[in-house]
# Entry
Amino acid sequence: MSTFLSYAVPGIPFGCTYAIVAMGLVLTYRTTGVFNFAFGSQAFVSAFTYTVLIGEGIPTWLAFVIAVVVLAPALGWVLDRFLFRRIAATNTTAKLVSAVAVFVALPQIVLLMFGSATRFSPPPLFLDAGRVYLHLFSTPINGLELETVIMTAALVLVVSAVLGASRFGLTVRAAVESPRLLQLEGVRSDRVLSAAWMGSSLMAGLAGVLLVPQYPTLQFNNYAILLVAALAAAALGNLADVQLALLGGILLGVVEGLASGYFSTSSVWHTGLLPAIPFLLLAILLVTRGRLRALEDTEDPLAGSDPPPPVPIAVTRSAELDRVIKLGGRALAVAAVVSVLTWVPGNWAFTLTAGVVYSIIFLSITLVTGMSGQVSLCQATFAGIGAFVAAQLAVHHGVPILLGAVIGALGAMVVGALGALPALRLRGLPLALLTLALALLADNAVFPYSWAGGPASGLNVPRPQIGSINLATTSSKGFFVLALLVLIACVIGVKVVQRATVGRYLDALRASPLGAESVGINPSAARVFVFALSAGLAGLGGALYASLQQSINPADFNYQFSLVFVVVVVTTGVRTVEGAIQAGVSFVVVEQLLSYLPGRWGSGGLAIVLFAFAALTYARHPEGVVEFQKRLWTERAERWLGLGGRSDRIVEMATASTGTDRDGPVA
Amino acid sequence: MDPLPERDRGLSVVSVSVRFGGIAALEGVDLVVDPGEIVGLVGPNGAGKTTLINCVGGQLVQSSGSVWLGGESLDGLPPFRRARRGVARTFQRIAVFPELTVREHLFIAARARRRGGARWSELVDRGRPDPDESAEIATTLELVGLADRADAAVSTLPLGACRLVELGRALIGRPTVVLADEPSSGLDARERATLATVLRTLPAQGIGVLLVEHDLPMVSLVCDRVVVLHVGRVIAQGAFQAVMADPAVRRAYLGQVA
# Structure
């Protein structure tokens, strides 16, 4: 019993850190209706500012006030005013992608501003971390642990009080459901939402600063993983119940404490299961809890008054212009290929080859997000599976790398299909969270093994040998041709699927799952198919990436890449094959161009920030920024040239019909 | 219990109950729609009409009771399998695919509802209707009066036309029974006339219709028989005039006045 307690008791303060973030998530979700991925980043921003200020010699209390009381609500106000308010409540994908973009960009902005040097965490707010204040069941409790528990208890009181203020709570819920409808009732719903966001951001900042002393150094990754682990705790309370979230957090901490105590440090359980516990728990809860499945089933009663979404411009532009543009596009592509093969210097040729390989990975997002309308946050994991399978086969079994790439793609395909099975009943946000949990599961419990992700120092991957041509010696240009051929084959494959009957089924399922099932479309089969195919593409791209880089290590395919990939592809256009290729090429070109900048500006963080900012326009242009610009210029060109394309006609029809008839379904 | 003898013909709902928490939305409802029969399902708001349709379509699982079609039980089947067995429906809140054209709606329905399920070739074919499907699509377009707008994206159509698209999507592929959930709401006078005409053509093809409708003149015009639902129970059924004269029905609709 005393052993049990000596393992369980230290788990309580640790569980309290989960509980703090979990309560913040519950509060945010209940007051803003957005499941806020950015919460972890908001917490990090306050924590970072706090640490920097203390490092500058500012007193603790002042640093706390600046970072938590001033900065955090201001950040919340900005996020609401300039981003989330502009997204329709029913547009789940836009809310999700925007939150992911903020999640990815905020830490990079902070690091760009203050530099990415290691920051050592300051001591706790008011207690001495090194001193043992009391013994609980003969387990020593130090100042840090005691303070965490005290602060958690204080937060529970505050949060319960806020949510208990039913009048405010009710107004906020109404503002979340339909700000426009609430406006009609004479309530300034914009102010209500601003207040909710500022409050939630304050909570994030508070959590961030409280958690600073938990880690020896300040790293964003800790906050990101804490967010997902806390989500598992919040999920225990269906993201709605503060008390259950608190209990869930503490329980999770205790279970982890017990597990790390009882499993010997060398056992598979300790290395494999322990780090996976929160993600496994989250995945299981998402799949089994009905209430979590309905997380974002909000319907704005006034959504019927929104104009219909635009169709890709390529569908509507005039035939003449279409021919010119397609011809121009092909000429440009040929010119680019010829340039790479002739005069482009080696480092740029390598960059563009990487762009082609990324395009293959990004095509998998065109399939899963563009065609089936679901956001997957584990595409980099699938790429990793392909890469590691191919690399391990090549290194340890002498399998040619290209054959290994095919086997790796098939392996990723199988994992994708198996992963889709538990996800069948999930859509939108819960599905995205499940994919994120799977990605973190792979990052923490599979890839770190040397039989999977290889040694931490990296795995040396060969370049392909085709007949007597060794692509490693004939510079990277031979590899460029190979990657291009694979990309072309993949593009043809995706286009075939888009055109086939199954493409129409997916269009139908994306638009209205209810309507699609009612005519006999099997949603599960379509889902498994598209996930498997998408995982296969990502796996193939990942294997080629490994061979291109000639060395990979377990961290090369972690969950952060999945998030960045989605942000990048959504920026350029997720609905078309061209969008994926533009994403692949621009991803590497922007990064390469920025690398000429001095110091930390050239470190790659700026590229992520730029893409994230571009992705924020997703709310207004769901077809992607590039696609939107294409529409704009096509319509201008048609006006100048007097071509009068098909787009005019369709726009006229749409405005004529939305005028009077389309005032929503009549009950 | 022994299933009713009628069940081996059309649609038969046998003592279906649905409870949401403590609230009973349906209490032991029995209902039969024979092939070629148009049955009106009427009742005040909240009577459970859409709940009943959802139980037949598979969008909702009943707490007890069973649903039969052509002598086979539909219980436990997901909506898409019921659709392939011959249950077709429209929705009170329309569920169309905005980016697809009217023709594509009908193509998808014709292809997906095909008995025997999906084929591997659907992964790589050209996504176009075969000659049989084309003929059926053309007939259906004429029937619902959308032939001139067949290639317009549905997002560009007014609500009334969307309801007709849903009706056409339900009718294609010769269903055994069509569940029409307030198909006339939001329709203008001409579209209502089209709707009534379309519905009247179905009995000749042996299609049964369960029509949920608030528009009582429409019900009296097209329905062979009317079932009145009130707070989850069937309170009357029979010919339209007789049912509407029933004191219980008048009470349900008008309160205690009558």
Remarks:
- Chain A touches chain B at residues 308-309, 311, 496-497, 499-505, 507-508, 511-512, 514-523, 525, 529, 650, 653-654, 657, 661-663, 665-667 (CB under 8 Å).
- The domain at 2-297 of chain A is CATH 1.10.3470 (ABC transporter involved in vitamin B12 uptake, BtuC).
